[in-house]
Amino acid sequence: MTDEARNKKINHKQRVFIDEYLRCFNGAEAARRAGYSEKTARITASNLLAEPNINEQVQARLAEVHMSADEAVKLLSDMARGDIAQIMDVSGVGFSLDMKKAQELGLTKLIKKVKQKTTTHLAKSESDEDREVIELEVELYDAQAAIDKILKVHGKYTEHVDISNSDGTLTRIEIIMPKDESN
Description:
The chain has 183 residues and is an alpha+beta fold. The protein is 44% helix and 22% strand. The chain has a two-stranded antiparallel ribbon with strand order 1-2. A two-stranded antiparallel sheet has the order 3-4. 10% of the residues are buried. The model has no long low-confidence stretch (mean pLDDT 84).
């Protein structure tokens, strides 16, 4: 079935239901927002989500924005390996952040925060000059936190928790993170 044929089977109200469902992931609420009856919103949502053409549209829209586990681990590994020197322009006088270069290299996803403060100092006499001081603060995502998450995903961390019983004795509980069986 073509997208055009599939879309013809979905009316405006159903399209609104899909949009709202993808905003709140609550079928009854999405049905109410789409204009279906308050009394039958749960049943209506269940029926709508069971319709193949609506379900296909929901799944297709989710697939557009879905991040796979592999993609998430890849992003974490990029954060762990992030090096601010890759996006800096160093000169004899100092350095500056080259956001265009970061964008071209696909490294802007590694930047958590950029803060710029510009201070203008006005001359107090005619012989002085006005000057402007620009302070730039750049924060990358935490490489150590990314490494920790990657190691947990690969089952390299075992966490131990000691819990005291009411009689003062300690009970040891071992939490073992599951290994990724795909590797």
